[in-house]
Structure formats: C-alpha cells, structure tokens
Amino acid sequence: MRLERFSLRLADPLETANGPIEAREGFLVRVGGPGGDGGRAEDGDEDGNGDGPASGLGEATPLPGWTESLDDCRAALDGGNPDATTPAARHGVSLARADADARRAGERLCDRLAAEGPFDSDGVTDAVPVNATVGDGTSEETADAVRDAVDEGFDAVKVKVGAREAAADRERLRAARDAAPDAELRADANGAWDRETAEEMLDAAADLGFAYVEQPLSAENLSGLASLRGRGVGVGVDESLASHSAREVLAADAADVLVLKPMALGGPDRTLDAARAARDAGADAVVTTTIDGVVARLGALHVAAAVPDVRACGLATGSLLAEDLGPDPAPVRDGEMTVPEGPGLAGGALDSLY
Ligand SMILES: O=C(O)CCC(=O)c1ccccc1C(=O)O
Ligand SMILES: [Mg+2]
C-alpha cells in the first residue's frame, strides 16, 4: 500500500451549525501494482510492488467529529488492515481494493458492488440525482444560492440550518421555498437544536413542504429523534450513524431517512449494508460525501448507483473545493451525476493518479 498525504482547500468555507469546514486533509491510498494482487495484506503484498501504476485507488479523508483524527487515520493505514474503528482509514483501503477488483474484472465499480452487495437486484442507476448543498447565510444569500441551484438544474436542494436563531432560520427556510417553489427541499441542523426548537422548526419545515430535516437533535438522542417523526416532514440522521449502527438507529425508529457517508461508515461495503438495513426497515437511503476529493466522491457515486431507488444524494460537493486530487470524470449536469464508463472508479479518466 502506498500513501500520499494531501490537503484540499474549499473555495469558500462551508458554514454549518458546528462551525465552518475550510479544508479537507487526508491520504490517497494506492494498492497493488502491475499484475498485482489488489494489495491484500493477507497475500503479503502490503507495499504494492513499488514501481509502475497501482491497480486500485482509494481515499482516506477523516473529518474529526465524524471519524478518527488525521493522526489516527495515518496510524491505522500504516497498520495495513484498518477496521471500522477508524472509518476513514478503512474506507481508503476498502475502496482501493474494490477498485482493483473491479478493474481486474473489467467492470465498473458500481456493477461489481451491485453484483456482490446485499441487494437482490444487480441493476444500477447510471445517472444518480443529486442535491445542491447551501451553507448558512442570510435569507437573501440563501435565496440566491437556492435560485442558482435550480437554474443549474438541481431538483433537490439542502440548506444548512442551526447556526443562527430559530426565527432567522425559519425566514431562511421560507426564502428557500420562495426561491424554489417546485424543488425537493431538505434542511440539515447538524444536531444543533433542543427538543422544543426542533419541534418548532420541523413544523415550519412541514408547512413549507420540506421533505426531511437532517439531524434535528444530537447524535445520541435516538428516542428524541423517534418522537419527532410523524409531524409532516421526515427525520434524517447522519451524525447518529457515526456512533450507532444503522440497525440500532432503525430499531429505535429514529429516522425516516438514513444519510449515509461512506467515509464515516468505513467504506462502500458497509454503506451498502446500511442502505439494505434501511430498506428492510422501510426507511429511505441517501448517499453523501464528507466533502471529499474526487476519488472518494466517485466511490460514493458508485455506491449510490448500486442502491435501488436511491433518493437525490449529497454528492454535488466537488464544486465546494478550490482544488482537487485530479480531473473530475463525473461533473454534475442538470442535477445528476453520471457514473463514468470503463472499469473501476472511472476507466482511464484517472490514469494519472494510479
Ligand atoms: O449532503 C450534502 O449535501 C453534502 C454533504 C454535507 O452536508 C456534509 C459534509 C461534510 C460533513 C457533514 C455533512 C452533513 O451532511 O452534515
Ligand atoms: Mg448532515
């Protein structure tokens, strides 16, 4: 396995209830070599044959609060076989191995994931609908950003809330709806509210026809989240899935929508298992990034493509970065991202990175 440290600045900080996200740091993970074995540690080829291009590419981009720290990620990667206690490290390795497997088989990663994954159908969605992501801002800034997103062709827009007073956020939700009368709107409070504020905000979101609100209460408060359901707007969770399994969250009836981040869940395989758990429990699944580089973004796109009936996903985050690991073979067009042709993550489109 070969690791390359990177740091990617955001074009503008993404303002959230937990403060701004300004940069994303992590490791590009390369496994295997020419004719290599995909870097499986059990085959005694941990360093991936040194010369020549790698056979698989992954990305480990920890986000403290959601995953292990950068130092713990590095240590787990150096250990060679990270487990889900260091989800970003496990993501990097499992994505790289899955990419190598798919390339060896001559198949797109999504086809491989669908064939081997937990869903009975091995059909994939070639173009995944995605939501635009609008950070905290004034009502006017929010309305402008939502209008721009609709003009660019997005049918779904997610607005970050919880960074300001409830009354101000209510105005922002209204401004978003006025700017996009026909869009599917979502809000994301990142766990910022107490029970009373959450009830009030969910009722306002329901009146405005929002589809769901992500993490209206803190991650640990599964019973509180459960009690917020049924108010005319869905309850989504993502922070809760960093500390509880999908099955625990679903058993607590805590969510209508599981918002699944492969980086925080430990990789593509674990994300598909969580999506299957959601479907078995009658909940929906949405796949999103943690604002990742192009390798993890593509990985998440392939995962989303392998989830039957996936709703619009939070994968349109490439444009939030000022710089990236390489060219983007799956730009957003008309509110969708199309899975790249060719084997693995992107056929030959990422050749310069291997
Ligand atoms: O879901 C999206 O639209 C984009 C991703 C996103 O919002 C996000 C990005 C980094 C960390 C946390 C979150 C989040 O969903 O809370
Ligand atoms: Mg969220």
TrEMBL record:
Catalytic activity reported: (1R,6R)-6-hydroxy-2-succinyl-cyclohexa-2,4-diene-1-carboxylate = 2-succinylbenzoate + H2O
Name assigned to this protein: o-succinylbenzoate synthase
Coiled-coil region list: none
EC numbers, comma separated: 4.2.1.113
Catalytic center residues: 160, 261
Family membership: Belongs to the mandelate racemase/muconate lactonizing enzyme family. MenC type 1 subfamily.
Keywords associated with the record: Lyase, Magnesium, Menaquinone biosynthesis, Metal-binding
Pathways per UniProt: Quinol/quinone metabolism; 1,4-dihydroxy-2-naphthoate biosynthesis; 1,4-dihydroxy-2-naphthoate from chorismate: step 4/7; Quinol/quinone metabolism; menaquinone biosynthesis
Entries under InterPro entries matching the protein: Enolase-like_C_sf, Enolase-like_N, Enolase_C-like, Mandelate_racemase_C, OSB_synthase_MenC1
Positions annotated to bind Mg(2+): 188, 214, 238
Start and end residues of each stretch annotated as Disordered: 25-95, 326-354
Domain Mandelate racemase/muconate lactonizing enzyme C-terminal per the UniProt entry, residue ranges: 139-235
Function: Converts 2-succinyl-6-hydroxy-2,4-cyclohexadiene-1-carboxylate (SHCHC) to 2-succinylbenzoate (OSB).
Key word Mitochondrion present: no
Cofactor section: a divalent metal cation
